[in-house]
Amino acid sequence: MIWQTTSMLILALVLIKVRPRDDFWKLVYWPAMGLRVAGALLMGWVYLHYLGEGDTITFHQEAFARYQQAITSPGAYFAELFTAQHPVFKAEARTELFTKILSVLYLLAGGSYWIAAAFLGVISFFCAFHLTRQLSNYFPHLRTIAIIAFLAWPSVIFWSSGILKDTLTNSALMLLGSVVITYCYRKSQPFSQLVLTFTCLLLLFYLKFYLAATAGLTLGLLAINTLLKELRISTVGRMALLAIHCIALLGMLSLLNFNLNIANFPQAIYTNYTQILDASPEHHVVFENLTPTYSGLLKASPESFFAGLFRPLLFEGSTWFLPFGLENLTLLLLTLLSIYWWRHIRMDAAGWCAIIFCSILAITLPLAAPAFGTLIRYKTAYLPFLVFVLLYTPFRRLFQKD
């Protein structure tokens, strides 16, 4: 108890020390952080005391076992900490890595689930806060929608703050978003940005390889497009070269994981889809004509894209999904407004990065994870970027008229 209290006091002192000096961001800092920590604790309470099962409980049990090992046999703990027990392409390897990281937080938290969850909530907050301030520095007129999308969107707070792999992966994506902003709008590129990019992609690869592949493809296309623009190649020529490089990047990314291999990808998607359907017969997206072929995936893509953006719909599924149905209804209304004002949409390279990233995941995730409970959680990887893009035009048309 003394160690837990001490660690919380140290954390509080650090948070006070690093708080922003600007008056506006001071007002945002504490409420936004409070939301993240509250989201982490709420998610834990829902699973521990209401649902009684789930990934967060499994992670807690494994991390707590490692924490106890660190107390009783520190030599064995540190030996295992840096030794992988499973091949990197196995799901067990991803769980193993996350619980090892989590066990370090448990050491700082004195074995407390709740304090470790609060630590993760703070980490999640700082990554989102960093991206929000980056956007606001370059685009002061977009400050409000950046705060809404990255610091205040309910499901993002709930699923990206507690003891889940999503907290670390989504935080890494926020940092990569800040890298994109720096790359697009800063003349000099510090070496630290390259290190940050590599670290985030590596973390994504080990925890959720498909996010690393999608982010890597998007960043690769951005870098190639920037290079081609500097070479003053015509728009048509640039589009053709981008298409060629996109194919080359896809070929390279297919080597990262067995399921991403070009020959295996359709079957991997189909197998995952059928396995999840068998495990959760209710409350899921159904693709009647899905087959383990590229043509089958292509035919299912429009329906999958809609599901990745807007499902579960309002009143679809159980009462548990009602808040997410309301959220998706809001997304649908924002999309319709953006379509209505499509002539006023102005997207630069960073905006297209967000659209490409969101579109790829919105199409593929419902196919691979059709259960609503899984989909709404996995969706938070791209949801804040989607919300930011969808808020952009309606907000400017309604509230920033000249």
TrEMBL record:
<feature type="transmembrane region" description="Helical">
    <location>
        <begin position="320"/>
        <end position="342"/>
    </location>
</feature>
<feature type="transmembrane region" description="Helical">
    <location>
        <begin position="138"/>
        <end position="159"/>
    </location>
</feature>
<feature type="transmembrane region" description="Helical">
    <location>
        <begin position="381"/>
        <end position="399"/>
    </location>
</feature>
<keyword id="KW-0812">Transmembrane</keyword>
<feature type="transmembrane region" description="Helical">
    <location>
        <begin position="349"/>
        <end position="369"/>
    </location>
</feature>
<keyword id="KW-1133">Transmembrane helix</keyword>
<feature type="transmembrane region" description="Helical">
    <location>
        <begin position="104"/>
        <end position="132"/>
    </location>
</feature>
<feature type="transmembrane region" description="Helical">
    <location>
        <begin position="236"/>
        <end position="256"/>
    </location>
</feature>
<protein>
    <recommendedName>
        <fullName>Dolichyl-phosphate-mannose-protein mannosyltransferase</fullName>
    </recommendedName>
</protein>
<keyword id="KW-0472">Membrane</keyword>
<feature type="transmembrane region" description="Helical">
    <location>
        <begin position="194"/>
        <end position="224"/>
    </location>
</feature>
<feature type="transmembrane region" description="Helical">
    <location>
        <begin position="30"/>
        <end position="48"/>
    </location>
</feature>
